[in-house]
Predict the structure.
Amino acid sequence: MSLTLNKEPLFAKPAWSGILVCAAVLAALPILNLAFPEGHALHVSNYVVTLIGKFMCYALAALALDLVWGYTGILSLGHGLFFALGGYAHGMYLMRAIGHDGVYQSDLPDFMVFLDWKSYPWYWSMTDNYWYCLLLVVLVPGLLAFIFGFFAFRSRIKGVYFSIITQAMTFAFMLLFFRNNTGFGGNNGFTDFKRILGYSVTAPATRAVLYLITLGFLLGALLLCRWIVKSKLGRVLQAVRDSESRLMFIGYNPLGFKLFVWTLSAILCGIAGALYVPQVGIINPSEMSPGNSIEMVVWAAVGGRGTLIGPIIGAFTVNGLKSWFTGAFPELWLFALGAIFILVTLAMPQGLTGLAQKLKKYKEGA
Amino acid sequence: MNLTLCWSSLAQAAIDPALLKPLAGDDPDARVDAVNAIAALANDDSLKVLNAIKNETLYAAPDGTVYIVDNNIAYNPADGKTSPPPDGIDGVMVNNRLRGAVDAALSGLKLLSPERAVRLDAALDLQKDADPARLPLIEKALAVEMDTDIQAILRMTAATTKLQSADAATRKEAVRALAQSNNPNLIPILQKMTEPNADGSYNEPDVAVRVAAVATMNAIEGRLARNEFIGNLFYGISLGSVLLLTALGLAITFGLMGIINMAHGELLMIGAYTTYVVQLLFRKFLPGAFDAYLLVALPAAFIVAGAVGIALERTVIRWLYGRPLETLLATWGISLILMQAVRSIFGAQNVEVSNPAWMSGGATVLGTLVLPYSRIVIIFFSLAVVGGVWLILNKTRLGLFVRAVTQNRRMAGCTGVATGRVDMLTFGLGSGIAGLGGVALSQLGNVGPDLGQGYIVDSFMVVVLGGVGQLIGTVLAALGLGEVNKFLEPAAGAVMAKIVILVFIIVFIQRRPQGLFAQKGRSVE
C-alpha cells in the first residue's frame, strides 16, 4: 500500500467532475456579469460577483486552516492574523497606488498626513513596487509563522496551549495595528483604493480579473493540498495528528513536518488576505480580532475538517448564511452563528461532508 | 455673593483711609497695590470693600473718600459709620485688571474661612501660582491656621513666593524650606536658578542659594520618584487583583477541570449586568439603602453566573469532556449567544453602574498620591475570594471530591464519588466566581455586552502563566502581570506594555510550557 501512495489519482473520477463543474459555474459568473447588460435575464450583478469573490478568499483561508487542523491536528486560533498580514502587505501597494488622489493630495497616504509625518517609515520603502509587495504577501505571514512555529513546536506546545497562544499572538498584533503610530492607518486601516497596476479597482473588468485569479488560486491550492495529503508527507502529518508520541518513537522528528505545513498554511492564508483586500476595498485591524480567527475555524468545522473540500463548502455555507441573516434579521445572526458552533461540535463533528457520507451509507445499506 | 460666611475669626477694624484713597484714583498700579494691601488686612471691612469692588457697589465722593452704597445707605469703611450717600458720588471704575486682583485677593481671604474644606481649596488654589503680593495674607493665615495639612501647603506657598525676594538669606531659607515640598512645578523654577545662562552668569547670583537649590531639587525629585514608584506599585496590585478575579474562575474550570471555556468572559459580563439590575432595583425600591446594594449584588451575581454555568455544563460541555478543541468552539458559540442575548435585553450601549458612596473618592497619601477607595476595596475583595476558594477546595467535602476527580476520575468514581455531579458543581463554582469578578469590574469601568471579550485573552494568559491546577500560581501570575504592566506603561505606553507582556508570555510558555508552578504527580501528562 505504502508504495502505491502517489500512483493513485488526486481525486476519484466523480469528485473530479464535481470540482470542474463547480469551477466552471464559478468562472462563468463574472463573464455573465460583463457580457450581459443590466436587466438581462442572464446578467449577474456586481454585488454577487464581489460577494462570491469574497467567499472564495474565505474558502482559501478555510482550506489553509484545514491543512493544519484537519490533517495535522494543530488548531490555530490565529489564522486571521496571517490573512490580515497578507491583506496589509498587498494594501501597502494599493495605498501607494492612490498617488496624489487622496483627500490631502500629498505624496503620503492620508493617514500619514493626518499624523503629520513627513516621509514614509523604513518598512514602507519599495512598497510602490507591485512585485515587491507580492513578495511581502508571501514572506511576512510565512516568516512570522516559521519563527513562531519553530519555537512553539520545538518546545512541543500542542493542543489547547498552542491554540491559546496563537490567539494571544493575533490579539497582540491587533493591539499593535490599532495604534496610529504603528504606521498602518490605526483604526481605519487601509481603504479608498483607486487603482491596481494602473487599472481602476472598482471597474467591473478589474473585478472580474481579480475574481478569476482568486478562483485560480483556490483551485490551485486545493490541488496542492490534496497532493500533499496524499503524499507520504501527508501520511506523516496525519500520524502527527493521531499519535505524535508514537511517531516519535518510530524515529520521526515531527518538528520539520509540522513547521512545513504550518508555514505553508500561513502563506496560503496570507494570499487569501491579499486577494481579499482589493475586492472588498478595505483592510483594518479588526480582521485580526480573535473572533475572526475562530470564525474561520467554524467554516472548516461546518464543512467537515480533514476533507479539504469540506472547508470550502463550509466557508460558502456559513458566509452565505451570514449575508442572508445580516440582511434579513441582523440581530439574530450571532444567535445563529453561536448555534452553528454548538450544533457542529455536538451533533455533526464531521461537518456537512460527514453528514453526506453518512446519508450515502444509510442509502446503500437500505 | 461668594462670601457670606461668618467671619468670626476676623477682627472688626476700620481701614486706613490712605489705603482706600488710591481706589478712587486713576493710577492702575496704585489701585492694584491698594487692593492687595486691603486684602492683607484680612478683616471684616476689607472683605466688604473687596466685595463692593467686585459687585460694583463701591463709590467715591469728589474728595476721594470711598463709600459702599447699598440700598441708598452709604457705608464708610474708613470709620465704620453709615450715612445717606453724599452728593456727587460716582461709581468706582472696575477694569479687568482690577477685577482679577480682587478675585485673587478674595480667594486668598478664603484662607481664613472657618470651614476646613474652603481653606484647603484656597490654599491649593494659591499654590498653583505663587504671587508675592499674597505673601502678607499667607503669613497672616499661617499664624492662625491649626490644621497641619493646610499649614504645610501654606508654608510651601510662602516659601515659593519668597524665592523672588531681594534678600539672599530669605531666598536661601525659602529654598531650604521647599525641600519638604511635593510640588513638581517647583523643579523648573529651581532648575532656572541653578543652571548657568549662555554667558556663564546665573539667574541666582548667590552661590549658597544655588547649592541649597540643588539639594532641594534632589530632595523633591527623590520624593516624587518614590511616590511614582509607590503609585505604580499600588496600581499594579490593583490591576493584578482585577486580573486575579477574572482569572480565578478560569483557574478552576480550565486549571482543574481542563475545560476551555471561551464563554468565561461572558460570565464576567453576566455578573456585571446582575450588579446593574440589583442597583436599579435598589434605586427604585430601596433608595435609602442604596449604599448597601453591593452586599446583595455579590450573592446575586454569584448565583446567576453560577446557574448559567451549571446550565452550560449540563447541556453542552459535559458531552465534550476529553475533546478540548471542540469544547473551545462550542463555548465560543455560547459566548456569542450570551453576548447577543444581553444586547437584545439591555441594548448595545454601555449601562451605567454607579459606585456606592463609600467606594467613591480616594485616600490621599504622601501628599500627591490618590488611591481610589474602589480599587482598595477590590484588592481586599480579591484576596477574600482567593481565601474562600482555597477554603472550599481544601477544607470542604466538595473540595475533596473536586481534587479527587481531578487527580483520578475513574478511581474517584469507583470509591463512590458522583463524578458527574462534582463536575457540575465545580463548573458552577468557577462560573459563580466569574460572576463575582463581574461585580468588581462593574465598579471600575464600563459595563457593556462586550465587557467579557476584553478579558478572555488576559484571563487565559494568567492561568497558563501560573500553571494549571495551582491557585498560588494564578495569584502570583495575576499580581506579577499587573505589576509588570503598570511599570512598563510609563515607558512604553499602555498598548505597547500590553503587547510586550503578551509577547513575553508567548516566549515564556515556549520555555516553560507547564507554567510557573508545574503540576506534580500522576496527573501530569
In short: The radius of gyration of chain A is 21 Å.
